[in-house]
Automatic annotation (TrEMBL):
Signal peptide (from-to): none
Limits of the O-antigen ligase-related domain: 222-384
Name this polypeptide is given: O-antigen ligase domain-containing protein
Transmembrane region(s): 21-48, 60-82, 123-143, 186-204, 216-232, 238-257, 269-287, 371-391, 403-421, 451-470
Gene Ontology cellular component terms for the protein in this record: membrane
C-alpha cells in the first residue's frame, strides 16, 4: 500500500515538475518573478520523485558537477576570507556569485524531462511559444518610450522616476528605441533572443530543401524580424557570441549544408536569392537611417568608446587575479577589492577619478574572469570544461530534424568574454533550463574527446586573451580621452586627434604638436563641446578647486589656413553616477570670450564664478566646467588647419 502511494506521489510530482518546466518556458520572456517561481516549483516538486527518477540523472551529472563545482569553489573562497567581510552572511547571501547555484538545479531536471519521447513534442511547442512571446514583446518595445515591464506592472502608467528607453532614431516617421521586451535592460533581452535566433535561422536554412514555399516565406519573415530586433538591441557581446556559434556550426557541418544545397532547385534558389537581397537591402537601409547602428559599428575598432570601460575594468581586475590566483577574493567582493586598485591610477592622474567612478565595477564583465577572481582559476577552468561538453552536445544536435535547434545557448561562451551573463539571473536561469533540454533530448555523447569542440574552445579563448593583452598594453594616458561632441562624426574624430593627452604621454604630445589636422570650412566653423574638469578635487570628501581653468591652442607656423579667432563658452554640467548616465543633464552657460589666435601657443583662462560648497561628498553638488568652442576668421573657400588643443592634466594648461 505504501509502495503504491509512493509511486503515485512520484508520478504526480514528476508531472507537476514537467508542466512547471513548460510554463517556465512561457514565463521567462514575460516575467522574471513568475519564471523563478515556476523554476523553483519545477525543482521542488521533482524532489519527491527522486527515489524513482534519481538514478536516471546519472548521465547528466558530469556537466552538472562542473557547474556546481565552480559555484562551490566561490563558496570555499568566501569561507577562507571570512574575516575580511564586514557582514559575511549579508554580503554572501545578497551579492555572492555562489548564491546563484540554485539556478543550475534545473539543468538535470530539464534534461530528464526532455529525455522522454512523450514529452518532446510538448517541449517543442512551448519553445515556439516562448520564442514568439520574446519576439513580439521585443517588437512592441521598439516603439515604446517606456520600459514595458514596469509600464504594464504600474497599470499602463509611467511611474515617477522610472528610466525611459534609450532612443534608437526614427524609422518611417516613428521614433524607435532599443528593444528590451519585458526585461529591465537591453543586454538581458539580447541574451534571451540569442538563445533562439540561431535556431530560427537554421530552421529557415533547412526549409530550403522542402517544396513548401509558405513555410519558407514564414520562416524568412521570422528570421528578418528577429535579425532586425537583434541589431537594434545593440548588444555587441551577443552579436559576437552568435557569430561564434554560426562559425562553429558552419565549420562542423559542411557536408550537411552541402547536402541541403544540392537538393535546392533553380526556382527555389532564385526565391532564396531574392529574399537574401531584400534582407540585405533592408539591413543596409536600417543602417543608413539609424545613427545608433552606425555609431556601434564604428566603435568596434576604437578604444575611446563606451566599451572603453572594459579597459578600466580589466585594468583593475588583473591585479586581483595576480594576488589571489588559487582561491580568489571571495564571493561578492569584486567591487570592494577592485575599488582599492583605483587609488594608484587616480593618484597618478586625478582626471581619471570621474572616469573610474562612472565605470560599472560590480563585476568583471567577463564570466571566466569573474569566477577566476572570486573563486580562483580552478573555478574558471570548471566553466571551461562545461562549455567544452556543451559544444560537443551542440555539435551532435544542431541538425536533428523535427526539433527546435537550441545551438544558440552556446552564444554565452564568447559573449561571456565581454559580459557576465552567468551572473544575470534572467539569462542564467533559462540558459540552464535550455541546456538541460538540449542535453536530454539527444543521444548519449560518446566519451571520446571531440577535437573540433576542443579546438573551438581553445582558439576562441586564445583569441580573446590575445586581444585583451594587446588592448591593455595601451598606456592609461592614451586609453583615456576627453569626451568631444561635434555636429559630425568626422569632425569629432579629427578633434580627438587634436586634443593632447596627459603630460606624461610626452611622445604622443610631441607627435600631435607636429601633425596637421585639416577639416572643411563648414566643420571648422561649427561649434563643438569639449569635456572639461570637475569643480572639486580628489579624494572623497572632495574639496573645492581653487586654481582657475585654462586651455591652450597651438597653431603651427606652417599652417596655410588656420583660424585667427576662437569663441569659448564655459558651461556648467552636472556630474552623475552610472545609474544616471542616460538621463539628460542640466547645463547652463557661465561665461564667454573671444580669443585671438596667432602662430604658436595662445591660452585661455577662466576663474570660477559661482559660490560652491567648500567640501562635499562626491558626486553630490559636484559639477563639470566644460567648454563650447567655435573657430572663426579663416578663408571659407579653403580647407582649414585646426589648432592643437591642450588642457594639461586637469584643465591646467601652462606654457
Amino acid at each position: 500500500m505504501n509502495l503504491i502511494r509512493s509511486d503515485r506521489i512520484s508520478r504526480i510530482s514528476e508531472s507537476v515538475s514537467f508542466y512547471s518546466l513548460l510554463y517556465f518556458l512561457v514565463a521567462f520572456p514575460l516575467s522574471v518573478s513568475a519564471s523563478q517561481v515556476l523554476a523553483g516549483l519545477c525543482i521542488f516538486s521533482f524532489l519527491f520523485s527522486l527515489r524513482e527518477n534519481g538514478p536516471k540523472l546519472k548521465q547528466y551529472l558530469l556537466p552538472w558537477a562542473f557547474i556546481l563545482g565552480a559555484y562551490f569553489l566561490v563558496f570555499l573562497s568566501s569561507l577562507v576570507h571570512f574575516q575580511e567581510y564586514s557582514h559575511f552572511w549579508k554580503t554572501f547571501t545578497r551579492q555572492s556569485e555562489a548564491g546563484d547555484f540554485w539556478l543550475a538545479l534545473i539543468f538535470p531536471i530539464a534534461a530528464f524531462h526532455s529525455s522522454k519521447e512523450e514529452n518532446q513534442k510538448k517541449i517543442y511547442q512551448f519553445l515556439w511559444i516562448s520564442f514568439s512571446l520574446l519576439l513580439l514583446s521585443g517588437i512592441a518595445s521598439v516603439f515604446s518610450e517606456y520600459r514595458l515591464g514596469k509600464f504594464i506592472s504600474n497599470g499602463f502608467h509611467p511611474a515617477p522616476g522610472d528610466r525611459r528607453q534609450h532612443p534608437a532614431g526614427p524609422l518611417f516617421g516613428f521614433q524607435t528605441y532599443l528593444p528590451i521586451g519585458l526585461m529591465n535592460t537591453h543586454l538581458t533581452y539580447g541574451g534571451l533572443l540569442s538563445f533562439y535566433l540561431p535556431g530560427i535561422l537554421l530552421l529557415t536554412f533547412q526549409s530550403l530543401k522542402e517544396k513548401k514555399v509558405p513555410k519558407i516565406l514564414f520562416l524568412s519573415i521570422l528570421s528578418f524580424l528577429s535579425l532586425w530586433v537583434f541589431l537594434l538591441n545593440q548588444s555587441k557581446s551577443a552579436w559576437l557570441g552568435i557569430a561564434a556559434v554560426f562559425g562553429f556550426v558552419l565549420l562542423g557541418s559542411q557536408e550537411s549544408f552541402r547536402a541541403i544545397l544540392s537538393k535546392i532547385q533553380l526556382k527555389r534558389a532564385l526565391v532564396i536569392l531574392l529574399l537574401v537581397c531584400i534582407a540585405g537591402i533592408s539591413i543596409r537601409f536600417l543602417y543608413q537611417k539609424n545613427w545608433l547602428l552606425q555609431r556601434t559599428v564604428s566603435q568596434l575598432t576604437e578604444i575611446q568608446t563606451p566599451e572603453n570601460q572594459r579597459y578600466w575594468i580589466y585594468k583593475l581586475s588583473l591585479p586581483l587575479l595576480i594576488k589571489n590566483p588559487i582561491l580568489g577574493v571571495g564571493g561578492g567582493r569584486f567591487k570592494e577589492e577592485s575599488t582599492k586598485e583605483e587609488v594608484p591610477l587616480i593618484t597618478a592622474q586625478e582626471q581619471l577619478w570621474y572616469e573610474l567612478y562612472i565605470t560599472p565595477n560590480k563585476h568583471a564583465h567577463n564570466d571566466l574572469l569573474e569566477f577566476a577572481i572570486v573563486g580562483g582559476w580552478a573555478s574558471a577552468i570548471l566553466w571551461i570544461l562545461f562549455f567544452y561538453l556543451l559544444f560537443k552536445r551542440i555539435d551532435s544536435d544542431k541538425l536533428v530534424k523535427g526539433s527546435f535547434p537550441l545551438l544558440g545557448i552556446g552564444f554565452i561562451w564568447v559573449a561571456g568574454f565581454f559580459q557576465c551573463y552567468l551572473l544575470d539571473d534572467e539569462v542564467a536561469l533559462p540558459f540552464f533550463a535550455l541546456a538541460g533540454i538540449l542535453w536530454g533530448r539527444g543521444k548519449k555523447i560518446e566519451s571520446k574527446p571531440s577535437p573540433f569542440a576542443l579546438a573551438f574552445i581553445c582558439i576562441t579563448f586564445l583569441l580573446n586573451t590575445g586581444f585583451w593583452i594587446w588592448r591593455l598594453s595601451t598606456p592609461f594616458q592614451l586609453a583615456y580621452a576627453r569626451q568631444i561632441f561635434a555636429e559630425s562624426s568626422h569632425y569629432t574624430k579629427k578633434l580627438e586627434k587634436a586634443v593632447f593627452p596627459f603630460r606624461s604621454a610626452s611622445e604622443e604630445r610631441e607627435k600631435r604638436l607636429t601633425q596637421s589636422i585639416e577639416v572643411s570650412s563648414k566643420e571648422a566653423g561649427s561649434e563643438f563641446y569639449l569635456e572639461g574638469c570637475l569643480t572639486h578635487r580628489y579624494p572623497n570628501p572632495a574639496k573645492l578647486r581653487e586654481e582657475p581653468y585654462s586651455i591652450g591652442f597651438y597653431i603651427s607656423p606652417t599652417a596655410k589656413n588656420p583660424p585667427k579667432k576662437v569663441r569659448i563658452i564655459v558651461f556648467s554640467e552636472e556630474s552623475f553616477d552610472e545609474d544616471k548616465l542616460y538621463w539628460s543633464h542640466r547645463k547652463f552657460d557661465l561665461g564667454s570670450e573671444e580669443l585671438n589666435l596667432g602662430s604658436g601657443w595662445d591660452s585661455y583662462v577662466w576663474k570660477e564664478s559661482i559660490g560652491l560648497s567648500k567640501i562635499t561628498i562626491f558626486p553630490d553638488i559636484v559639477f563639470f566646467r566644460s567648454f563650447k568652442i567655435r573657430f572663426a576668421d579663416f578663408d571659407p573657400e579653403k580647407p582649414v588647419q585646426i589648432p592643437a588643443i591642450d588642457l594639461g592634466d586637469l584643465c591646467d594648461f601652462k606654457l
